[in-house]
Write a structure and sequence with these properties.
- The protein is built from 9 helices and 10 strands.
- By secondary structure, the protein is α+β, with helices and mostly antiparallel strands.
- Strands 1, 2, 3, 4, 5, 6, 7, 8, 9 and 10 form a 10-stranded mixed β-sheet that branches.
- Helix 3 packs across helix 8.
- The longest helix is centred in the middle third of the chain and has 20 residues.
- 29% of the residues are buried.
Length: 275
């Protein structure tokens, strides 16, 4: 463990680096942060699992805490949240947006609104810890990660009168149990199980939600939550897990106060000066 990190540190020192920190991804949709709590929980599609000795060794090697995330498990309500429903109905006409995911396929949405979606993503996440804008060829990589396992029932893409994406929410069907069952192999039989998990999921994982800065504090996210939560209840979903949310992202933390939930995992990055 020490030797591996030492090799990275020496490489950085050779190239004039002053600090070693991580684990970070190349952009914010990559797997980031080391697990520090919830070792008995299964990792989600968008996260890596770490055994307890990883974080223990980081402390022994003198690394300091850096960015921290929490992950939630949400209780599925018996019916849609009244407050969310009323607010969404009120705002639909007032803010002048439409949800294109209700009438378009995933492929069509990507083709027509892909660039606009990333503009909103970069705008919404731009000030968060370690965020790197997703641009150029990276867009194709991100779309490749998520588009193939999207179910239109559990996404919401809101566009304004200018046909620009102003807000979005993406919740993914969990394919983890199927992949574990088939030991990570799609073929010969794992592929069918994955397709079934996507079409009729029993568990979901929150991937991304974002609102363009000029639409923040309008309550527009209620439209997204209303659509997805209705389909969650109608679809008989058993559980929903969030992917990592930064502890310092107070806006996203506040967004889920209306829902009954528990923190099931924590993760973080570490840093140390290179000497």
């Amino acid at each position: 463990f020490n030797a591996l990190l030492g090799a990275v540190e020496n490489y950085g020192k050779h190239h004039g680096m002053k600090v070693i920190h991580g684990p970070w991804g190349f952009n914010d949709t990559d797997r980031e942060g080391m697990l520090t709590y919830g070792f008995n929980e299964r990792a989600t599609y968008a996260t890596n699992y770490y055994y307890p000795y990883f974080s223990e060794n980081m402390k022994k090697l003198g690394f300091d805490d850096e960015s921290k995330w929490v992950e939630y498990r949400f209780k599925i309500p018996d019916k849609p949240y009244d407050r969310i429903e009323k607010l969404a109905e009120k705002l639909k006409d007032k803010v002048g947006v439409k949800d294109v995911s209700e009438t378009m396929s995933i492929k069509a949405i990507i083709k027509k609104y892909g660039d606009s979606l990333f503009e909103t993503l970069n705008d919404a996440y731009g000030k968060l810890d370690g965020y790197v804008p997703i641009e150029d060829k990276m867009k194709d990589n991100v779309l490749g990660q998520f588009a193939t396992i999207c179910n239109p029932k559990y996404i919401s893409i809101l566009v304004d009168k200018n046909e620009e994406v102003v807000a979005f929410g993406i919740v993914l069907p969990s394919i983890c149990d199927t992949l574990i069952k088939h030991k990570g192999k799609l073929f010969p039989s794992g592929f069918v199980g994955v397709l079934k998990s996507i079409k009729n999921p029993t568990d979901l994982e929150m991937a991304l939600i974002g609102v363009r800065s000029d639409y923040k504090n309008t309550g527009i996210n209620s439209i997204i939550l209303s659509k997805i939560s209705k389909n969650v209840i109608d679809g008989g979903v058993n559980s929903i897990e969030s992917n990592p949310m930064l502890e310092t992202n107070y806006a996203i933390q506040a967004q889920w106060k209306f829902a009954e939930s528990e923190i099931i995992k924590r993760r973080q990055t570490y840093k140390r000066e290179i000497v």
